[in-house]
Amino acid sequence: GVAYPGIRLLMLSLAGADGAGNPDLVAVFRRELARFALQEATGTKTPPEWFQDGFADLFSGPTSWRREGTLLWAAVRHKLVPLLADPHERSTEEEPRLAGDERRKELISAESVDFLDFLLAAPRHTRFPTCVDALHRGQSLSAALHEAYSSDAFVLELSWRRHVARRATLTLTALATGIPMLGVAGVIGIRYIRRRKKRPSEE
Q1: CB under 8 Å to 106, separation ≥6 — which residues?
Q2: What's the DSSP call for residue 183?
């Protein structure tokens, strides 16, 4: 799908991006409509591409397990890609470096969706319209986030990173305790079934 906010046109294709057929048209429509709405609201000062993609993908439907796994695995390995520039580096770059393999692009996509979800989660969701309004008035994304959330954009991203790290830790803990418990339950179940089968022969 492709959105053209300037002429209020939204185009959908019956073929997927890779040429395959039968794409999820509902998800594609929701994603491109969300992108259209964001670009319409921000006006000529469009936010960075990763921010637009994250907003659009967030509203396209539930987060996939693959995307969540990509994000949490990167968090565990401390390999998250910075989305916003560190002010101490005196950089005005608001786009993460997109050059690299497909895995890096996939990670940036997963991060952008989760970061937007973080910004729109209660109670922060009431501040997002202020961010959009600031973008509409021509401010940079970092300045708009600072105005809306009363926090430096880089610090805001660090808060989100800590949030992701906690989720990753909880997920690993659940897996570490859950899988052995399933194994124990399986062994107990097998032994119980075997005992049930032996009883008739013994009688």
Answers
A1: 67, 70
A2: H
Q: Do 87 and 58 form a contact (C-beta atoms < 8 A)? A: no
Query: In terms of Cα–Cα distance, which of 56, 165, 65, 68 is closest to 114?
Result: 68
Residues 6+ apart with CB under 8 A from 1: 10, 11, 12, 13, 28, 29, 31, 32
Q: Which pLDDT band holds residue 92 (cuts at 50, 70, 90)?
A: very low
For the chain, strand residue ranges (E) read 2-4, 9-11
Q: 């693959």: which residue's tokens?
A: 66
Q: How far is CA 140 from CA 22, 35, 185, 186, in A?
A: 38, 18, 55, 56
Higher confidence at residue 86 or residue 89? 86
Sorting pLDDT into bands at 50, 70 and 90, what band is 21? Answer: low
Q: State pLDDT tens for residues 158-194.
A: 999 999 999 998 888 876 675 565 555 565 566 556 6
pTM for the predicted model, two decimal places: 0.76
The answer, yes or no, to whether the previous bond of 123 is cis (omega within 30 of 0) is yes
Token pair for residue 49? 């591409």
CA distance 62 to 80: 22
- Mean pLDDT score, 116-140: 94
Tell whether the torsion through CA atoms of 11, 17, 19 and 24 is positive or negative: negative
Q: Report the alpha-carbon distance of residue 31 to residue 51 in Å, rounded.
A: 13
Q: Is 170 helix (H, G, I), strand (E, B) or coil?
A: helix
